[in-house]
Structures are given as C-alpha cells and as structure tokens.
Specification:
- The protein has about 200 residues and is mainly alpha-helical.
- It has 2 domains: about 20-60, Arc Repressor Mutant, subunit A; about 65-200, Tetracycline Repressor, domain 2, CATH 1.10.357.10.
- The protein has 10 helices and no strands.
- It has helices at about 20-35, 45-50, 55-60, 65-85, 85-90, 95-110, 120-125, 130-155, 160-180, 190-200.
- Helix 1 crosses helix 4 and helix 6 packs antiparallel against helix 10 (about 190-200).
- The longest helix has 24 residues, at about 130-155.
- The radius of gyration is 23 Å and the shape is elongated.
- The termini are far apart.
C-alpha cells in the first residue's frame, strides 16, 4: 500500500518587499534636502529618518557630498520630464511647449511649501565650483539655457539668445520669489509676462 504523501504547507501570500536601504536613503535625502537644504541636513538625520545605519549609507555613497549629487541627478530627471512634457502635446509648436511648463510652474510656485528649484538652491548653497552637487546643478543650467535658445529660435525670435536669457531670468526669478510670496506673489503673473516678452521678441 503506497505511503501517504504529507500535506503541502499552506501557501502564504508574499509580503510586500521592503525597499532596500539604498533606496530608502535616496528617497529620504531627496525629501530632506529639498525641504530643508543640503547643508542643513546631516548624515545622522538621514539614516535615522530612513531607518538604516551609517554603514549602509557609506556602502552606497562615498560621502554626503556624493549623496547630494545623486539627489540632484534624480531631481534633474524630474525637471526635464516636466520641462519637456509639452513637446508631446504640442510637437510642432515651440511656444506652446514652453508655456505648458510655465503654466505648471506658475501653479506650483504659488502653493504653500514651495521650495523653488533644487538645482538653483544647490548653486546658492555651494558658491565654490568644486562641489559635486554644484557641478550637477551648473551643467543643468547650461543645458537649460541652450534649450531655451533652441525654443526661441523655433519661435522665430529676432534675437533668440536674448529672448532665451530673458526667459531664463523669469524662470529663476519665479523659483526664488515663489518661496517668498506664495499664492499672491509674482509667480501668478509668470505666464502673462512670458507671453509679453515673447511677443516683443517677435515684433
């Protein structure tokens, strides 16, 4: 008589995988660095908030400076996604592409808790040109300026570089003033001012 096979153990539902330490560190650093500033946040606070140990942080990042640079690389990915989103909606209209970003920025910069552009903030925090975080931010701003020249050229501006610089100054001014004035600040006028500047450049 064949022996009975022992019953199979019940199949338990798989528990949701806990984020790895490096990912928790990365997410926590992004939140804290953006809200409080990079210099204001120490490694101890990051690992405590992330629920990891210091060795875990240093296994993933050589230093806090490198973690700050990685935060800005992540931030830059999100920035370009937002900046270029209008191209999918308005593929043949450079002005509409740009204004889609300006409209979104105007709304974000008018909300409570807005902290401006993380890349711009890093440049202010690190005036020297040798910090890894500043290098990421500087490269982004150079690319942004060049992109604005491309868009200004596509719009038919008589002096594309001049219009691009004017638009860049509007952007940077919005990043800063949004932190000061909130809902009733100049960020609410961003779209109107940008359109007037573009109209003047085409006349």
């Amino acid at each position: 008589m064949p022996s009975k096979r022992p019953p199979s153990p019940p199949i338990e539902p798989m528990a949701e995988e806990k984020p790895k330490a490096a990912e928790r560190i990365r997410r926590t650093a992004r939140e804290l660095f953006y809200r409080e500033g990079i210099r204001a946040i120490g490694v101890e606070e990051i690992v405590t908030r992330a629920g990891v140990t210091k060795p875990s942080l240093y296994r993933s990042y050589a230093s806090k400076d490198e973690l700050a640079a990685e935060y800005l690389r992540d931030y830059e990915v999100g920035f370009w996604a937002a900046f270029n989103a209008g191209a999918d909606i308005h593929p043949d209209d450079a002005r509409a592409q740009l204004m889609a970003y300006f409209e979104g920025l105007s709304q974000r910069a008018s909300q409570a808790g807005y902290r401006g552009c993380g890349l711009t903030n890093a440049v202010v925090e690190y005036p020297g040109d040798d910090h890894p975080a500043r290098k990421v931010a500087e490269e982004n701003k150079r690319k942004l300026r060049a992109r604005l020249v491309e868009l200004s050229t596509a719009m038919g501006a008589k002096h594309p570089a001049l219009l691009a610089d004017g638009l860049l100054l509007l952007l940077e001014g919005t990043y800063a003033s949004g932190q000061l004035f909130g809902a009733h600040g100049p960020a609410g006028s961003l779209v109107k001012i940008a359109n007037q500047l573009i109209d003047a450049s085409l006349a």
